Here is the input.
Amino acid sequence: MKKLSIIVLTGIMLASSGTVLAQDGYGGPGYKGQRGHRNAQFMPLTDRFMRAIRHLDLSEDQKENIHTTMQAMKTEIGPIMDEMKAGHLQLKELIKADGFDEQAVADLAAIEGDLAAERILITSRALSDVYAQLTDEQRIQLEEMRAERMERRAERRKQLSGDS
Here is the structure.
Protein backbone atom coordinates (compact mmCIF):
# COMPACT_ATOMS: atom_id res chain seq x y z
CA MET A 1 0.00 0.00 0.00
CA LYS A 2 2.83 2.39 0.88
CA LYS A 3 4.65 1.76 -2.40
CA LEU A 4 1.43 2.30 -4.35
CA SER A 5 0.86 5.62 -2.58
CA ILE A 6 4.41 6.73 -3.34
CA ILE A 7 4.01 5.73 -6.98
CA VAL A 8 0.73 7.63 -7.21
CA LEU A 9 2.24 10.72 -5.56
CA THR A 10 5.25 10.62 -7.88
CA GLY A 11 3.01 10.20 -10.93
CA ILE A 12 0.89 13.17 -9.92
CA MET A 13 4.02 15.25 -9.33
CA LEU A 14 5.37 14.34 -12.74
CA ALA A 15 2.07 15.20 -14.38
CA SER A 16 1.82 18.52 -12.59
CA SER A 17 5.43 19.55 -13.20
CA GLY A 18 4.67 20.74 -16.73
CA THR A 19 2.00 23.08 -15.39
CA VAL A 20 4.36 24.37 -12.74
CA LEU A 21 7.10 24.99 -15.26
CA ALA A 22 4.74 26.86 -17.56
CA GLN A 23 3.76 29.33 -14.86
CA ASP A 24 5.62 32.60 -15.11
CA GLY A 25 7.61 33.43 -12.01
CA TYR A 26 6.68 30.34 -10.03
CA GLY A 27 8.50 29.94 -6.75
CA GLY A 28 10.90 32.86 -6.64
CA PRO A 29 11.71 34.84 -3.52
CA GLY A 30 8.63 36.57 -2.19
CA TYR A 31 6.30 34.47 -4.33
CA LYS A 32 3.01 34.01 -2.52
CA GLY A 33 1.45 31.43 -4.80
CA GLN A 34 -2.24 31.08 -5.40
CA ARG A 35 -4.48 32.44 -2.67
CA GLY A 36 -1.52 33.88 -0.76
CA HIS A 37 0.16 30.64 0.26
CA ARG A 38 3.34 31.14 2.20
CA ASN A 39 5.05 28.01 0.87
CA ALA A 40 7.09 29.76 -1.78
CA GLN A 41 9.14 26.81 -2.94
CA PHE A 42 6.51 24.07 -2.82
CA MET A 43 5.01 22.53 -5.86
CA PRO A 44 1.19 22.59 -5.88
CA LEU A 45 0.96 18.88 -5.01
CA THR A 46 3.29 19.30 -2.05
CA ASP A 47 1.30 22.28 -0.86
CA ARG A 48 -1.99 20.34 -1.04
CA PHE A 49 -0.41 17.33 0.69
CA MET A 50 0.92 19.45 3.54
CA ARG A 51 -2.39 21.28 3.97
CA ALA A 52 -4.08 17.87 4.29
CA ILE A 53 -1.45 16.71 6.81
CA ARG A 54 -2.26 19.74 8.97
CA HIS A 55 -5.83 18.46 9.35
CA LEU A 56 -4.62 15.23 10.94
CA ASP A 57 -4.27 14.81 14.68
CA LEU A 58 -0.47 14.67 14.74
CA SER A 59 1.60 14.02 17.84
CA GLU A 60 4.20 16.57 18.84
CA ASP A 61 6.96 14.19 17.68
CA GLN A 62 5.27 13.81 14.29
CA LYS A 63 4.90 17.58 13.94
CA GLU A 64 8.55 18.12 14.79
CA ASN A 65 9.81 15.37 12.48
CA ILE A 66 7.62 16.53 9.60
CA HIS A 67 8.72 20.12 10.10
CA THR A 68 12.37 19.04 10.06
CA THR A 69 11.84 16.97 6.91
CA MET A 70 10.09 19.80 5.07
CA GLN A 71 12.67 22.39 6.13
CA ALA A 72 15.43 20.13 4.83
CA MET A 73 13.53 19.73 1.56
CA LYS A 74 13.10 23.49 1.19
CA THR A 75 16.81 24.02 1.85
CA GLU A 76 17.72 21.42 -0.75
CA ILE A 77 15.26 22.71 -3.35
CA GLY A 78 16.10 26.41 -2.90
CA PRO A 79 19.17 26.46 -5.16
CA ILE A 80 17.34 24.39 -7.77
CA MET A 81 14.47 26.87 -7.84
CA ASP A 82 16.96 29.72 -8.20
CA GLU A 83 18.54 27.97 -11.19
CA MET A 84 15.13 27.36 -12.71
CA LYS A 85 14.18 31.01 -12.30
CA ALA A 86 17.43 32.06 -13.97
CA GLY A 87 16.67 29.65 -16.81
CA HIS A 88 13.19 31.16 -17.24
CA LEU A 89 14.73 34.63 -17.47
CA GLN A 90 17.25 33.40 -20.06
CA LEU A 91 14.44 31.84 -22.06
CA LYS A 92 12.52 35.12 -22.04
CA GLU A 93 15.60 36.87 -23.41
CA LEU A 94 16.06 34.23 -26.11
CA ILE A 95 12.43 34.64 -27.13
CA LYS A 96 12.85 38.42 -27.41
CA ALA A 97 16.08 38.16 -29.43
CA ASP A 98 16.10 39.21 -33.09
CA GLY A 99 16.78 35.68 -34.32
CA PHE A 100 15.64 32.39 -32.84
CA ASP A 101 18.55 30.34 -31.48
CA GLU A 102 17.11 26.83 -31.46
CA GLN A 103 20.23 25.26 -29.97
CA ALA A 104 20.32 27.71 -27.06
CA VAL A 105 16.64 27.02 -26.31
CA ALA A 106 17.24 23.25 -26.57
CA ASP A 107 20.17 23.54 -24.16
CA LEU A 108 18.03 25.50 -21.70
CA ALA A 109 15.24 22.95 -22.05
CA ALA A 110 17.62 20.10 -21.25
CA ILE A 111 18.89 21.91 -18.16
CA GLU A 112 15.31 22.69 -17.11
CA GLY A 113 14.37 19.04 -17.46
CA ASP A 114 17.31 17.91 -15.33
CA LEU A 115 16.45 20.47 -12.66
CA ALA A 116 12.78 19.49 -12.68
CA ALA A 117 13.71 15.82 -12.32
CA GLU A 118 16.01 16.61 -9.40
CA ARG A 119 13.29 18.71 -7.75
CA ILE A 120 10.76 15.90 -8.16
CA LEU A 121 13.16 13.37 -6.63
CA ILE A 122 13.87 15.59 -3.64
CA THR A 123 10.20 16.39 -3.11
CA SER A 124 9.11 12.76 -3.52
CA ARG A 125 11.71 11.65 -0.99
CA ALA A 126 10.47 14.24 1.52
CA LEU A 127 6.81 13.36 1.01
CA SER A 128 7.63 9.68 1.36
CA ASP A 129 9.40 10.43 4.65
CA VAL A 130 6.37 12.40 5.86
CA TYR A 131 3.98 9.64 4.81
CA ALA A 132 6.10 7.05 6.60
CA GLN A 133 5.68 8.98 9.85
CA LEU A 134 1.89 8.68 9.76
CA THR A 135 -0.04 5.99 11.59
CA ASP A 136 -2.31 3.62 9.69
CA GLU A 137 -5.34 5.55 10.97
CA GLN A 138 -3.87 8.85 9.77
CA ARG A 139 -3.16 7.34 6.35
CA ILE A 140 -6.77 6.18 6.09
CA GLN A 141 -7.98 9.63 7.12
CA LEU A 142 -5.69 11.22 4.52
CA GLU A 143 -7.10 8.93 1.81
CA GLU A 144 -10.66 9.77 2.87
CA MET A 145 -9.86 13.49 2.67
CA ARG A 146 -8.44 12.97 -0.83
CA ALA A 147 -11.55 11.11 -1.94
CA GLU A 148 -13.80 13.86 -0.56
CA ARG A 149 -11.74 16.52 -2.34
CA MET A 150 -12.03 14.61 -5.61
CA GLU A 151 -15.81 14.38 -5.17
CA ARG A 152 -16.05 18.13 -4.52
CA ARG A 153 -13.93 18.87 -7.59
CA ALA A 154 -16.07 16.59 -9.75
CA GLU A 155 -19.21 18.32 -8.50
CA ARG A 156 -17.75 21.78 -9.21
CA ARG A 157 -16.77 20.68 -12.73
CA LYS A 158 -20.25 19.37 -13.25
CA GLN A 159 -21.78 22.67 -12.10
CA LEU A 160 -19.41 24.72 -14.25
CA SER A 161 -20.18 22.66 -17.32
CA GLY A 162 -23.89 23.42 -16.89
CA ASP A 163 -24.97 19.88 -16.15
CA SER A 164 -27.52 19.55 -13.39
Observations:
- The helical segments are 2-22, 44-54, 60-96, 102-132, 136-160.
- The two ends are 36 Å apart (CA to CA).
